[in-house]
Write a structure and sequence with these properties.
Length: 200
């Protein structure tokens, strides 16, 4: 059986991570996506169980207490976290598990899974990012400013990632992502095979 592969993806809010990741999933059927849990309210169009598991603060705190979160953060007054069970089950099945999480979460995962692959998605320019966040039209000016500040902060950590992808176009970014996955999968399979041969 194939060994599982854990991939963490970060990038400032509004950079288009979600769109890139959706395209990657569409084109590689071994890729599964961990749905995060959050205590924030759904934005228009967001669906429970698809974009996030929308849960109460109390339920979130209970999951933290019961060690059911692989990692979690509190950001802009809301909790965000990765439910543990799904990730561990899919890795055991040999799947490629994508986590779309913030920088703090990614570093946390790297400590727990040093063999994971980390990818940072960059906007072509800060102006472009401001445009994308503003156009979404779902946030107040204060929230937009807070998100841009955080974006600048997050981008300073991009060097700690294994790969950086600039999202010029979704198509190019997704192709680069698929290429990284292909290379890593081959590497892992070779290592796995070598280990098996040694044992026999
Ligand atoms: P948003 O409210 O725009 O959906 O997400 C806000 C931030 O939370 C983003 O930077 C996003 O990457 C991060 N985030 C979403 N899910 C998780 C998670 O499960 N864990 C962590 N650490 N961050 C998350």
């Amino acid at each position: 059986m194939n060994p599982g592969l854990l991939i963490v993806v970060s990038g400032p809010a509004g950079v288009g991570k979600g769109t890139v990741v959706s395209l990657v999933r569409e084109r590689d059927r071994d890729v599964v996506f961990s749905v995060s849990a959050t205590s924030r309210s759904p934005r228009p169009g967001e669906i429970d169980g698809v974009n996030y598991f929308f849960i109460t603060r109390e339920k979130f705190q209970e999951m933290i207490r019961d060690n059911e979160m692989l990692e979690w953060v509190e950001y802009c007054g809301n909790y965000y976290g990765t439910p543990r069970a799904y990730v561990e089950d899919e890795l055991r099945k040999g799947k490629i598990v994508l986590l779309e999480i913030d920088v703090e979460g990614a570093m946390n995962i790297k400590r727990q899974y040093p063999q994971c692959v980390s990818v940072f998605i960059m906007p072509p320019t800060m102006e472009e990012l401001r445009d994308r966040i503003t156009k979404r039209g779902t946030e107040t000016p204060e929230v937009i400013e807070a998100r841009l500040k955080r974006a600048e902060n997050e981008m300073q950590h991009s060097a700690e990632y294994d790969y950086i992808i600039v999202n010029q176009t979704v198509e190019e970014a997704a192709n680069r992502f698929l290429e990284i996955i292909r290379q890593k999968r081959e590497q892992l399979q070779r290592r796995h095979q070598a280990l098996n041969e040694e044992r026999n």
